[in-house]
Specification:
This protein is mainly alpha-helical and 238 residues long. It is 64% helix and 8% strand. The chain has eleven helices and four strands; from the N terminus they run E-E-H-H-H-H-H-H-E-E-H-H-H-H-H. The strands form two sheets. It has a two-stranded antiparallel sheet. The protein has a two-stranded antiparallel ribbon with strand order 3-4. A hairpin with a 6-residue loop joins strand 1 and strand 2. The longest helix is centred in the N-terminal third of the chain and has 38 residues. It is extended, with a radius of gyration of 25 Å.
Length: 238
């Protein structure tokens, strides 16, 4: 039978005998098939070396790194708490809380992306380009090609892309748009970037007018414009 032991000084876990599933569950790994695979791989693992000249210095390295990681985790927790406190006090909080799929993690990131200075961006295209969501079109003679924007703030781009991906679960029109583009044969990443492009335009409008996002209002606007997206959404639900 496996047992799990912890070094009281450095908090290092090591295993002897068997490895219970409870250990993985306690560390937020709760997929039975994945855990069973890990246990099997641990059981079948072969020792790479028994040379103490290799093992000892690496053990010392791990023992030195563990306290550093613990301090890093404490620092991350402190930053998270401070971000939550500041976000709750921010006057624009209602706007970002209203965004489908944003949630407690992405809403503060989106707020930081937009900022509080309404004069910073003159139009939605400014954000789309700065965040690297808008593609680049190049021309040479009669040739024209479109490619991924390389010069941008990568974390900012990732923030909008992650939000767009999550919005598919919580927004009716975003889900319909994803299915529409999927039916056209577009790959997942292309669809999500395109969706992020659309969301930035909506967010920019809400941000500029200090207005929380409302799904029903946006759907009404799509209906009044005769958007083919709504027709596709209705037909796909039948």
């Amino acid at each position: 039978m496996f047992t799990i032991r912890e070094n009281s000084t450095f908090g290092i876990y090591y295993f002897s005998g068997g490895l219970p599933l409870d250990f993985f569950n306690q560390h937020n790994s709760r997929y039975p098939l994945v855990n069973e695979k890990r246990i099997k791989e641990i059981k079948d693992a072969e020792i790479l070396t028994e040379d103490m000249a290799v093992i000892t210095p690496n053990l010392l390295l791990i023992e030195c790194l563990i306290p550093q990681l613990k301090q890093l985790m404490l620092a991350i927790t402190r930053f998270d708490d401070e971000i939550k406190t500041l976000y709750k006090q921010h006057t624009d909080r209602a706007i970002f809380d209203s965004l489908p799929g944003a949630g407690p993690q992405l809403a503060p990131r989106l707020l930081a992306a937009m900022g509080s200075n309404r004069d910073r961006y003159k139009c939605a295209a400014d954000i789309q380009k700065y965040a690297g969501i808008a593609p680049v079109t190049e021309r040479s003679g009669k040739k024209e090609w479109i490619h991924w924007r390389y010069s941008c703030t990568k974390f900012l781009r990732q923030t909008f892309v992650e939000w767009a991906g999550l919005s598919v679960r919580y927004s009716f029109w975003a889900k319909a748009y994803y299915r529409q583009q999927e039916a056209k044969g577009k790959p997942h990443n292309t669809i999500i970037r395109s969706l992020a492009f659309k969301w930035i335009r909506i967010l920019f409008r809400c941000w500029k007018t200090h207005t929380p996002y409302d799904e029903s209002t946006y759907l009404t606007a799509l209906k009044s414009k005769g958007s083919p997206l709504l027709k596709f959404a209705v037909e796909s639900e039948l």
